[in-house]
Amino acid sequence: MHIKKGDTVVILSGDDKGKTAKVLRAMPKEGKILVEGVNVMKKHQRARKEGQKGSVVDRAMPIHASKVRLVGETKKTVKK
């Protein structure tokens, strides 16, 4: 996979197209990456203890590595 943890990437497709963000985690076996602030979903969380309230938590979901490009990378550098 051409992307590693800590790289800065540009999102090429989807709802977050055009955003620039940092890679938090790379999963090469699945071909996916976790990008900071991209593909964020709402997760309803149940109360853990009695008397505690449930809540809605924002959670970043992984996206496919082919949907991102490293910042500064152009088509000319990819073809080499």
Structural overview:
There is one protein chain. The mean pLDDT is 88. The chain is built from 1 helix and 7 strands; from the N terminus they run E-E-E-E-E-E-E-H. A hairpin with a 4-residue loop joins strand 2 (20-27) and strand 3 (32-35). The protein has 80 residues and is mostly beta strands. Helices cover 6% and strands 41% of the residues. It has one helix spanning 75-79, and strands spanning 8-11, 20-27, 32-35, 40-45, 55-60, 63-64, 68-70.
Could you give a short description of this structure?
The chain is mainly β and 80 residues long.
What is the rounded distance between the termini? 16 Å
Mean pLDDT: 88
Number of DSSP E strands: 7
Strand-pairing-aware structural class = mainly beta
Strand content: 35-45%
**Whole-number radius of gyration?**
16 Å
Low-confidence stretches: none
List keywords for this structure.
80 residues, mainly beta, SH3 type barrels, five-stranded antiparallel sheet, 6% helix, elongated
Blueprint of the fold:
Blueprint lengths: L7 E4 L8 E8 L4 E4 L4 E6 L9 E6 L2 E2 L3 E3 L4 H5 L1
Antiparallel strand pairs: 1-2, 1-7, 2-3, 3-6, 4-5
